[in-house]
Amino acid sequence: EYRGLVKHTGGCHCGAVRFEVWASADLHVFNCNCSICTKKQNRHFIVPASRFKLLKGADNLTTYTFNTHRAQHTFCKTCGVQSFYTPRSNPDGYGIAPHCLDDGTVQTITTEDINGKEWEKAVSEHKTIRDMSKP
Question: Which domain does 93 fall in, by range?
Answer without folding.
Answer: 6-128
